[in-house]
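Need the bound structure for nicotinamide-adenine-dinucleotide, inputs here:
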Amino acid sequence: MSSVFANDAFAGKTVLVTGASSGIGEGTAKAFAAHGANVMINGRDAARGGAVRDAIADEGGNVALSLGDVADSAYCNRLVAETVDRFGRLDVLFNNAGICLHGPVDETSDDDWDHLIGINVSGSFYMARAAVRQMKAQGDGGAIINMSSECGLIAYERLPAYSATKGAIVMLTKCMAIDHARDGIRVNAVCPGDIDTPMTDLGWAHLDVTSEEIREKLKEHIPLGKVGQPLDIAHAVMYLASDAAGFVTGTLLPIDGGTTAR
Ligand code: NAD
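Answer from helper R.:
Posting the output first, comments after.
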C-alpha cells in the first residue's frame, strides 16, 4: 500500500502513539516514523514494545518506548513529560490504546465494565488532557486523533459495553474540538471498521472458528469486500495530523469499507 505523503512529511514533528505494541498503533507508529516523525510509542508489554521500537530504529526511525498503563492518570502525565524530555515537544497524539469486551449487559461483570471504562474512556481522557496542557504551553497548536470505532456510530450485537466507551470518545472529541479550536489544537476521531489485528479474533472466541474463517465471514458484510489493514488507519491518522487537515476539527472519520454507510 503506497503513501501519498512525502518521506519527510512529518520531519521535526513529535508524535505520541499509545497502544503501539501491536495492531493499529504499531502500524501507525511505523508509518509516522517512516515519514520523518520523532515517535514516542507506549505499550504495556516490554518484549512486544521493545520489538516495535527496534523495528522502527532498524529502519532509521527516531523512536523511544515508554511502558505503562493509560488507565493510570499519573502515568499519562509522565508519558507526555517523557516525550517532551526525549524530543523537546509534542505535536501529535494518537490516542489509540484500547481493549474490547464482548457479551450482552447481563453477562458483563462490574469488574469487566470498570476495566473497559478505565482504559478506553478514562485512559483516552487522561492522555488527551495531558496532551492539551502540553500543547497549550507550547503555544503553537497541535493535533489529537482519538480512537473511536464503527461501534461508536452504529449498534452491533454483543457489544454494548465496548460501544458505550467508543460512543463516549465521539463526544469527548467533539467537545474538545470546540474548547481548543482557538488554541490551534485540532481534535478528531477515527472510527475503524473491521481491521486485521489481534483484536478482531476476540469477538468470535465463543464460536469454533479459525482466524481465516472469521476474515472470510467479515468480508461478506463489508461493502468493499475486504478487511481493513492497520495501514488503512495509519494513512487516515496521518492526514488528520497533517497541515492538509488544517481546517478539519471535531470530525469523526469512518474507515470501514463502507459498513456504516448502510
Ligand atoms: P490490539 O489489541 O492489537 O492493540 C491494542 C493496543 O492497546 C495493544 O498494543 C495493547 O497493549 C494496548 N493497550 C491496551 N490496554 C492498554 C493500557 N491500559 N495501556 C496501554 N496500552 C494498552 O488491537 P487494535 O485493533 O490495534 O486496537 C487499537 C485500537 O483500535 C483500540 O482502541 C480498538 O478499540 C480500536 N479499534 C479496533 C478495531 C479493529 O477492528 N481491530 C476497530 C475499531 C476500533
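Comments: The pocket of nicotinamide-adenine-dinucleotide is lined by residues 18-19, 21-25, 42-44, 69-71, 96-100, 119, 123, 147, 149, 192, 194-195, 197-200 (CB under 6 Å). Residues 194-227 form one domain.
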